[in-house]
Amino acid sequence: MVPEKDGDRKPALLASRRKSWRSLQLSASLSGAVGLVVGIRYNPHTPATTIMTPATLLPQPRARRGDPLQQPDFLHLWSGFYYGEMAACELSVRLAEMAPDRHLQRFSTETHHNDETWHAEVFQQLVGQLPGHPAMPPTPAWAQEIANTVRTCNSYVELTIGSLVVEASAVFLLELQSQFPGHLGTTFQRMLRQEKGHVAFATRYLRDTLRQAEPDRRRELKELILETFRYTRDRIRPQFVRLHLEPVLPLLGISVQDYRNRARLASRKVVRSILRG
């Protein structure tokens, strides 16, 4: 994971992960356009290695009233997203290592990992542009818990369920931030499109896996899906809300209770989409 109090090493860590990831791509002999899998096609996107610089990403000629970059409390939200995206980067690597076929592996290497790396770098830039240029807070316990689970899990299906849960939880918060004005809103709109693509991909894969499974295996997978969502709801989400959302949700125009209600409904919708699809 990222060192707790060493802001200078974080860009190097991301670069190191990209370097090792290129080696994995070469060893797997993967090249060409984004792969097709279960009938879903994804549009090309800017690679993580060519992300926009802070000057072009978030031009701020003058401070605006209500400008998120002038609100110190956004440190809570954006640092939480940063650590979530770092966990998603690691998860995408594990998915590629265990992918049962070449098309699934290509999606993890050429789309999923690049997207998540770019997201992490954006949130790192955002935190650095807040008033006082604060350092990234230490890695929270929930992020360490997710990372440990990713490292020890040896099932592609189980990791896909975990990936779906994490990314589906982020969509609503990205929708709120996509309404920011100017380049900041445009950046979040792009993130939102990418995360929705990841959710659609994982949902379709799990649907097909359930359809093709034997009855006993199907029941086992359904219970695993429900168990993962319950675990996120009861253990991970409360920590995230307390540490990262309570200070900033009023700035996004939503109460904590309203967020909890919306997150609960969104989770149910995703579960039903998989189980009844």
Overall description:
Helix content is 69%, strand content 0%. It has one domain (68-275): Orthogonal Bundle (Ribonucleotide Reductase, subunit A), CATH 1.10.620.20. The chain has nine helices and no strands. α3 packs antiparallel against α4 (102-128), α3 packs antiparallel against α6 and α6 packs across α9 (256-275). The model is unreliable at 1-65 (pLDDT under 50). By secondary structure, it is mainly α.
Uncertain spans? 1-65
The CATH topology is given as: Ribonucleotide Reductase, subunit A
Overall pLDDT confidence: 80
- How helical, in percent, are the residues? 55-70%
Write a brief structural summary.
This protein has 277 residues and is mainly alpha-helical.
What characteristics describe this protein?
disordered N terminus, 9 helices, single chain, 0% strand, mainly alpha, 277 residues, Ribonucleotide Reductase, subunit A
